[in-house]
C-alpha cells in the first residue's frame, strides 16, 4: 500500500527554525510588555528602595528582550530566513529594542513633499526612544513590481536607433 501524499503546505523547509524564531519573538514581546506594564504601574515615589529594585528588574526584562531579538536576527541570518515584515516592524534595527507604541517609540506620519501636496508620499515614521533611530514605512502607496517583472515595461519606453 502506497503512502498518502503530503499536502504542499506541510512541506516547509526549516520549519524548526521558523518555530524557534516565532518563539523568540513571542518571548521578547512578553518581556517587553511586562516591562511596559510595570513601569507604567509604578507610583510617584521612584526614590524608595523598593522602587529602585523594581527598576533594576525592569531593566533586566528589557535586556533579556533585547538579547532575544538579537538571537532572532542571528538565527535568521545563519539559516538564511527572512523574518516576516510584521515581525521586523516591531524591532529597532539599531539597538534591537522591542518597540511598543507609547512606551519606547513614537509613530508619526510625515509628508516631505512640497507642502504635502503629494498624498502618495505619506511616510509612517517610528522613532525609537532608546537610540533615536527612525524607521520609515510608506503608507497608502501601491508596491512596485519586482525588478525582473518590470524590466520588460521599462525597455518598451526606450527607443534605440538601429543605425
From TrEMBL:
tRNA processing as UniProt keyword: yes
Alphabetically ordered keywords of this record: Metal-binding, tRNA processing, Zinc
An example molecular function term from Gene Ontology annotations: metal ion binding
Example GO biological process: tRNA processing
Short name of one Pfam family: Rpr2
GO terms for cellular component: nucleolar ribonuclease P complex
Similarity comment: family membership: Belongs to the eukaryotic/archaeal RNase P protein component 4 family.
Stated name of the protein: Uncharacterized protein
Source organism of the structure: Verticillium longisporum
Amino acid at each position: 500500500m502506497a503512502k498518502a501524499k503530503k499536502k504542499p503546505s506541510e512541506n516547509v523547509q526549516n520549519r524548526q527554525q521558523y518555530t524557534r524564531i516565532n518563539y523568540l519573538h513571542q518571548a521578547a514581546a512578553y518581556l517587553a510588555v511586562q516591562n511596559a506594564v510595570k513601569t507604567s504601574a509604578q507610583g510617584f515615589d521612584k526614590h524608595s528602595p523598593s522602587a529602585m529594585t523594581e527598576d533594576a528588574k525592569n531593566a533586566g526584562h528589557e535586556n533579556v528582550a533585547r538579547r532575544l531579538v538579537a538571537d532572532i536576527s542571528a538565527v535568521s541570518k545563519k539559516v538564511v530566513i527572512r523574518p516576516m515584515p510584521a515581525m521586523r516592524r516591531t524591532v529597532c534595527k539599531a539597538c534591537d529594542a522591542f518597540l511598543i507604541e507609547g512606551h519606547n517609540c513614537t509613530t508619526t506620519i510625515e509628508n516631505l513633499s512640497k507642502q504635502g501636496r503629494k498624498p502618495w508620499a505619506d511616510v509612517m515614521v517610528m522613532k525609537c526612544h532608546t537610540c533615536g533611530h527612525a524607521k520609515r514605512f510608506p503608507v497608502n502607496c501601491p508596491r512596485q513590481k519586482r525588478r525582473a517583472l518590470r524590466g520588460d515595461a521599462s525597455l518598451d519606453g526606450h527607443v534605440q536607433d538601429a543605425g
